[in-house]
């Protein structure tokens, strides 16, 4: 049985979740998108759930993202290993959400310190911040800046 919020929704804070696909959806982490959603629901009602990947992502991954109810945002990258294009698109989407949407909590699934300015801007605008990450390579500065940290 799931928790009450998961089964009945809630009238609490509105949450936006942005997933750094190249950084988090790797075989070595075995991140379960359903578990990610469950963790985020502790902080309120999930209004936005987007996974950012590049065009080199396997078709099965794209299918899994969509099947779990996430919006899949495919970014054209210069090369397979280049995550910076995805980072920039995710950061822009998060900042747009912070500025223009009725969202109380910004949740980022990433290990990347490049998202520190997003966390800082969210807090500046009175948003609660949640970072969902994994080891190894989980930025301590990102963890320290967030209001809450979930280790996946």
Describe what this molecule looks like in 3D:
The chain has 152 residues and is an alpha/beta fold. The chain has a single domain (4-151), classed as Rossmann fold. Helices cover 39% and strands 24% of the residues. It contains seven helices and six strands; from the N terminus they run αβααβαβαβαβαβ. The longest helix is centred in the middle third of the chain and has 17 residues, at 84-100.
Give me a quick take on this structure:
With 152 residues, the protein is an alpha/beta fold. Helices cover 39% and strands 24% of the residues.
Q: What layout of secondary structure does this protein have?
A:
Blueprint: H1 4-8, E1 14-20, H2 21-24, H3 33-41, E2 45-54, H4 59-67, E3 71-75, H5 84-100, E4 105-109, H6 116-124, E5 128-133, H7 140-145, E6 148-151
Parallel strand pairs: 1-2, 1-4, 2-3, 4-5, 5-6
Query: How far apart are the first and last residues' alpha carbons, in Å?
Result: 21 Å
**SS-based structural class?**
alpha/beta
Spatial extent as radius of gyration: 14 Å
Into which percentage range does the β-strand content fall?
A: 15-25%
State the CATH class.
Answer: Alpha Beta
Proper CATH architecture: 3-Layer(aba) Sandwich
- Report helical residue fraction: 25-40%
Q: Look up the CATH topology.
A: Rossmann fold
Mean pLDDT: 91
Largest beta-sheet characterization? 6 strands, parallel
Taken in chain order, the helices and strands follow as HEHHEHEHEHEHE
